[in-house]
Specification:
By secondary structure, the chain is mainly alpha-helical. It has one domain. The protein is 84% helix and 0% strand. The chain has 7 helices and no strands. The protein is rod-shaped and about 110 Å long. The two termini are 63 Å apart.
Amino acid sequence: MEKNKTGKYLKYSVGEILLLVIGILIALQINNWNDNRLLVELQKDFILNIKEDLKMDRENLQNIISIQKEKYDYTQRLLNEMPNINQENKKQLDSLMNSILYENPTFFPVIGSYQSALSSGKFARFKGNTVTSDIASLYENYYSRLVYVGEALDDRFFKMGEKYKFERRTKQFREMNEIENSEFQDNIHWLSSIIDFYLKRSNETLTKINEVLVLQLP
């Protein structure tokens, strides 16, 4: 009779333990499901915010490309006309020079949503799909390279502005001797080359922005 009681007690204990284990496993599964659901929602919000930032970046970059393309065309026209400068075409060249030295917009992205996800540690949890990989590539590679080239262009533009203060102030050419004229053409050529490279980087980045904007979570 004691043996029967012991056996029943053991069965009862084992049953309780199994129920407890099953309960823990179910709770863990529910907890994991809730965590995964929350992560998916956080990722959706992140991508929506990123896309809003990218729309602003796209508009800004398109405007910059338009202005820099005009500046590049002006530098090419100026280089073509400089060897033949005379009183008849001087006003036209003055206008070209003024357009070249007037402004130099370069691109700086909107990084609020991306930086917030990085600093909070959320972005590390999002990794593992093509959407977040493409977003990281855009910010860490494309944007970084474009900003770097833009800084080189800003530096060249600033040095040109300092060197040709008279032209910027009066919006016309000063009298130059042969050596000064040759140096001026070299400077314009170098500026034109940097603008050309900047435009290539800008168009590559614009293409990447458009690619990311149409991506959807799997």
